[in-house]
Amino acid sequence: YPTWKRTLARRARESQVKRFCRAQAIQRRLEEIEVTFRELEQQGIKLEKLLRDENESPADQQTQWTNQLLYLVQKKNNLMTEESDLMIAVQELKLEEQQCQLDQKLRSYMNKQETLKTPENEKAEQEILKQLLEVVNKRNVLIQMQEEKRLSEL
Fold this sequence. Notes:
Blueprint (H helix, E strand, L loop, with lengths): L2 H51 L5 H52 L8 H35 L1
């Protein structure tokens, strides 16, 4: 087993572990966001009830409750933005994993000697190359979406 093949295999495993760790971190954050959403919903419901039921409260108190409610809405919107960014990151990780797998398959076909390749091998190699290009294009679209989103937020 040549050194370069071992190096490629090790790098592939390392990148797979990194993707897995990133996916776990994203999943944890998505769960945290979900819990925070529920908490914000409960706080919002309480504030809305206070605003509806306490018509005789001082104007300062109602203004304070309204400001708190607006703050909760803003916080929820920020979390929704973060959640959509994380969902894009999840899609990107899936495409990255798919690209890595296709790349490994393509390398295995390309490493065969030309004299040993069958027409089926060549056809499979072309199909994998086509799939790889599709994945790269999908990743490019995701990156463009993120960039457009970032620019619109600025």
